[in-house]
Amino acid sequence: MTINLSANVDLVQSLEAQIERIGAFIGNGLGISVAAVERAVEGVHSDDIAKVLQDRSIDSGLLTAAAEIKRVSAQIDVTIHVLGILRALPHILENGERIERVSLGAGNTGRAFDLETNLRIAEFKFIQWRGGPESIRQNGIFKDFFDLATAETSKRRCLYLLGTHHALKFFRGRRAMGSVLSKNLATRERFMRLHGERYATVDQYYADHEQVVEIIDLLPWLPELAALPIESPE
Predict the structure, then answer these.
(1) Is 138 exposed, middle or buried (0-12, 13-18, 19+ CB in 10 A)?
(2) Residue 91 gets which letter from DSSP?
(3) Which of 51, 83, 107, 143 counts the highest number of beta carbons within 10 A?
(4) pLDDT for 13
């Protein structure tokens, strides 16, 4: 694989310039800057608005900078997923443990789990939860737990999270199983084939399987991720 260092340098320099422009616009705080712009444009005649914007450097370049930063930042979640797994490996691997397969990119990569070694299978979630009715994230974490619990393996099954409080509260709660499985047809069908109507709520399923899957907090090893913004409920 050939890495175009010149292109990478150009990208970094371009982002630096764009961040500098956005930073200048934000100033001491976005709210303060927006309020100042609001005062500046109120009452301005159509003949004068272009000059007011020009005086404040509000032009196509500033909007382009904001759009480019948003485009690049859309890849940050995947980047955190990749780097978080890699940085966690020295902490979680045991002596003699050998990595067999990894799936570093978030989402469906065609591999069953984020990590498989000769000793364990593992899934990773790099999300800071606020708590409350976060049904989409709860559905996702249940799927990971269920996939680990039902895997045909004698290896350790590990679910790594940023903090375990909200996840355990969900697993020990009485959310209806039908609601948790309602958005993922494949998982629902597999769950019903295995268990039928045996489990009405999440806590019932978790009580029977909490010894099968280890739920492990990554924050003691990756304290820098404690600074991630807390996800708001959808």
Answers:
(1) buried
(2) H
(3) 143
(4) 78
Is the pLDDT score of 128 beyond 90? no
| pLDDT score at 2 | 44
Domain ranges of the chain: 5-73, 76-227
In the structure encoding, which two tokens stand for residue 160, read together?
């790594």
Instruction: Report helix, strand and coil shares of the chain as percent, to nearest 5.
Output: 55, 10, 35
Helices 60-73 and 5-26: angle between axes, nearest 10 degrees: 120
Cα distance between residue 82 and residue 186, in whole Å? 26
Mean pLDDT score across all residues of the chain = 88
Would you state the pLDDT for residue 126?
92
How far is residue 37 CA from its own chain's centroid?
Answer: 34
The residue written with tokens 């007011």 in the block is: 52
8 A C-beta contact, residue 125 and residue 161:
yes
The pTM score is 0.77
| Backbone φ/ψ region at 95: left (φ over 0), alpha (ψ -120 to 50), beta | beta
CA of residue 167 relative to chain centroid, distance: 15
Half-sphere exposure for 45 (CA within 13 Å, toward CB): 2
